[in-house]
Amino acid sequence: MIPVMLMGTVLSGKRYSLFEYGCAGAIAGGVALFAGAGGKSGGGGGHSIPTKRLAAPNAPLGYALCLLNLLLDGYTNAAQDELHSQFKETPPLWTMAWMNAWCALYNGIYLFGKLPGSGWSSSAGARFFASLSGSAEARRDVALFCACGAVGQLFIFYTIARFGSLTNTIITTTRKFFNILLSVLWLGTPLDLTQWAAVALVFSGLGASSVAKAKGGKGGKQKRH
C-alpha cells in the first residue's frame, strides 16, 4: 500500500492525507509484524521463517528484489489510475486483456526463448508441457488454477477502474492477511502477544479507513496537485 501511494504521488501528483498514510501504515505494519513474528524456527537466532527465506542465501539480493517488486507494483498501479483518469471510457476488460497479453509474451520468452550466439535456451516450457501430457490430474489442476485466476482478475480490474488502485491494494493486502490468520486458526496454532498486537493493528487501520470513507471525511478523498 505504501509504494502504491508514493508512486501515485510522484507520477500522478496525487496527495494523500496523514490520516490515510497512518491507516496504510497500520495495515502494512500489522501484516509485516504478524508474518515476522510467526513461524519462528529453532537454532536460527529467533528469526521468522519468512525472514529467513528472504535473506537466504543472499540477503542483499533478496531484499533488493523485494524492493524492486514493490516499486514496480506501485508504478503499475499508478499508471493504471492515470490511464483510467485520462480515458474514462476505457473498459476494465481492455486493460485486463493487454496486461495478460504482455505477461504471455514475457513468460513465453522465458519458457521457450533462445539467445542467439550464446548457446542459451530455455527448456522450462518443454518440461512443463511434458509433465502435463503425462498427468490428467495436473492438467485439471492447471486448468482450474487458470480459470480461478481469470475470474479473480475480472474483479481486480473492475475494482481498479471503479474505485482506484489503492482500494484494490487494501483489499488484496487484507485478503492475504485473512488467509494467514484463517490458516493459523484452522490449524490451531496459538498466537503470541506480538501477533495479537499485529491483528489489532490491521483491524484498527481497516476500521478507521472504512469509517472515514463512509463519512466522506478527510480519509476518503484523494487530491491532485
Q: What oligomeric state is this?
A: single chain
Strand content: under 5%
Terminal-residue CA separation: 20 Å
Number of strands: 4
Mean pLDDT over the full residue set: 81
Coarse morphology = globular
The strand order across the widest sheet is: 1-4
Major sheet size, sense and barrel closure: 2 strands, antiparallel
How many separate helices?
9
Radius of gyration: 21 Å
Can you write the helix and strand succession as a string?
HEHHHHEEHHHHE
Domain count: the total is: 1
Helix content: over 70%
Which structural class best describes the helix and strand composition? mainly alpha
Weakly predicted, low-confidence segments: 41-45, 217-221
Give an account of the 3D structure.
- The protein is mainly α.
- The protein has one domain (2-224).
- It has helices at residues 2-12, 18-37, 49-55, 59-86, 92-112, 124-133, 136-163, 165-186, 193-215, and strands spanning 14-15, 114-115, 120-121, 223-224.
- The strands form two sheets. Strands 1-4 form a two-stranded antiparallel ribbon.
- Helix 1 packs across helix 4 and helix 2 (18-37) packs parallel to helix 8.
